[in-house]
Amino acid sequence: MPSRSQTEKKKLHDFCMKIPKVELHAHLNGSISTDTLQKLSARKSSSDEKASDLAKLAKWKKLTENREQRSLEDCFEIFPLVHKLVDDAEAVAIATRDVIQEFAADNVKYLELRSSPKENPSTGLTRRTYIETVLKEIKQSNYESNGILTRFLLSIDRKVPLPVMGEVVKLAEEFHTSSEGLLVGLDLSGDPFTTNVSDIIPLLSRAKNAGLKLALHLAETDDRSAESLMLLQVPPDRIGHGTFIHPAAGGTDEMEELVNRLKIPIECCLTSNLISRTVKSYSEHHFKYWLNKNHPVVLCTDDKGVFSTNLSEEYRIAAETYNLQNDDLWRISNESINYIFADDATKTSLRDEWQICR
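Below the sequence we write its predicted structure tokens.
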């Protein structure tokens, strides 16, 4: 395909920034920017601890200035620091507030944040207070009407013990009822090699029966077809990544047939998958495969802080890689509204807003 001129690239960049967008796959802790991490580090009382954290952040900031120089190992090094800094209710509040504001600045009009509720006995943080803090910040943001509407999904981390997963589901059911529609679903994520998925499925089915929507990470690697098929049979309301579903990508005919028949939307995270090495290049990403089949797909960031991206950048990459025109990008964004975990009134309101912005 012909390359775009610098003028065309500038116009594309501006258009991607301008169009309203929907973000449906954003992990809270992975979306925290370097600026917010520096703010959180400054709260620490130990000067030695601050110096160590700031050195790590300085290295990370330098790496993110050149996206091509970052390795997967570099990205994973930042996660322990994030978890260390977000260890009390105030830190959770700061992180949530900043992440929402940054998505709003990128002209994201509807955001679904997801996070595994953390606890830290030394700071008094419990899973319940973690959830309450995130919901409080979301409610305040929505009330302030700053151009973005936010909802929350609790994440089941596959590395935690099964009883903890059960506690997370119980909390999700409780807050789904009491949060005035702010907590809308469950996410299943984490290392797929840590837990037998057959042990988790009863919890997912229970949550679904309680009215919670399910966004499940599955088919993230090319050797998990059996468990991915089990998860597809729950079934999920959306698929996280789904990199290895269709046979040409290492999946199976049975998986693809099920996804096609149920029209399960797929959350596609281009930069995340490239840096995580689950795809070799943008051009080989499965997003284009499903887009060509007119299957529901949503462009997402995954961990915008860790992978140093934003949703406008993901749209730009998609346009340049797959030769998409402005009308294509607008349609992808507009159709993403169909797949949000919100009521029909919210979807109608968002569609009206998209038409005004067209």
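The chain has one domain: 6-32+86-357.
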